[in-house]
Amino acid sequence: MPFNRPIPDDQPRSKPSTAIQGLVQAEKLMQIALLLPSSAFIGWLAGAWADSHFHQSWIGIAGCVFGGVSGLVYVVRLMITTEKNSRIEDVPQNGTGEDSPDNTL
Q: How many domains does the chain have?
């Protein structure tokens, strides 16, 4: 009995919206919410240690500012990456390499 290949669908199958994708999005939001305060706190801890080690009084504040700025930079990079990934997933493709849906074979 010969094998006949099935006729391919015109439209690619869309990814089903699953609970796991929702959990991934929630994890990204939680990461953003926890990242800024924790980075400022870690910067303050490092600055407080440096204050006691070098007998200065300004390094703790500088460490807190540095931690907050570095956390903010990381959050902005994370959001840019997330937006690029969502744009790639949202583009409809018809299998011909073109993005417009009116091109048919």
A: 1
